Amino acid sequence: MAKMAADPFSVRTEATCSSSPLNLRSSKTATFRIRAHNNQHIDDKNRFYKELGLFLLFSACVLVPEISSTFALKRKIEDLVLRAEMLAPTALEFEEARRLKQEEIIREYDLWDDVAKSNEDLVQLAESAKAVDALKDLRYKAEEAKLITELAGMDSINYDFLKQAYTACVSVNKTLDKYEMSKLLREPYDMEGACVTIESGNEGIYSQIWAEKLTRMYIKWAEKQGHKARIVEKQDSESGGIKYVMIELEFKSAYGYLSGERGIHCMNGSSEGKFDLLKDGAAAINVIPLFLESSPDLQIDENDLEITTSYEEEQGRTSPSLTIQHIPTGLQVRSTGERSRFANKLKALNRLKAKLLIVMREQGVSNLASIRSSDISSSWNQVIRRYVFHPNKLVEDMKTGVQLSDLTAVLNGNIEPFIGAHINSRRHEIP
Q1: Which residues belong to any copy of the Peptide chain release factor domain (predicted)?
Q2: What is residue 173's three-state secondary structure?
């Protein structure tokens, strides 16, 4: 790879490379000249050999991209493995202790004495056991990735092994991220499911198209969590977008993860197919708890409710629609997804209670009479995120300051950076 020139006072070095890591010869040549003198001091000679070694390293890393990529990938894997080695053992120790404590609690009393408490304890025990299994699997994957990295070090061109290890490490660290976030979900209703509503703004068809994009974004996010999002109500626009949609996510912690999504989501500078001009759009998103185990614990005076019933024609059939308005606050909910008026009323009433509970918590009040209705709209109608399509693709979260340049990934459901930033920001907030 390196040639000594005939001139005793200089060294001419050449390096060649090709696209194949097994064959380093090709027509491409890089030439460098390092001069050395016969009467040079021993330190100068040492410097000469050092320069020659640096050149050989340069030719390996720059002229052979595979080797450079291997070094970079190994460094990433080492960083990810280090994080897993630091966090996983502590987390596993904590979860195993929690499981043992739950087992001890269950052994100390008769499960039939308090069925409700027994069910709660059994659920917590199952969660602890599940967390222990997940963390053990995580630790195994990290050890496997570390071993692959060490084996790959014996064969610097085995790039596929490193990619396999890197994929495993990314999966491990995503699991750790999710575990860490779950430990921060300590506010009331964080462990409940979520009911997400998306309503297009007043910008016409562009906002309706934007509402449809946001609907797909949340559905894809749920799928990435291993769950399904169920559309329970939907009002399509005549031009192909969505005027209004309600999505139910019936899995634990969905509300805790998505509560920070509430607000106005703006689309800036999007060009949609047949439209030549770049347009803006907006959609209002609201998120309320979807109580999975029991009904919301809140009593509402029937005299404070205004209930109206109508019938909607959809796909050739008529279905009942029920709307409930809480007169003192002006909050309004509806239900159209059930077959009977009674079922719609029950569902709408639960949604209203969930809304009121969130408002009470946000305003720091303990009863319905203390709710300040004038403050409700201002807290729910703030722009919280901008999705910029042109000139540069960018997603900017106003509340947390997080910015992402991969707009496509975000619209495909990769909203974890925003979720994580919101959950972390709550540490510094006083309830």
Answers
A1: 150-261
A2: helix
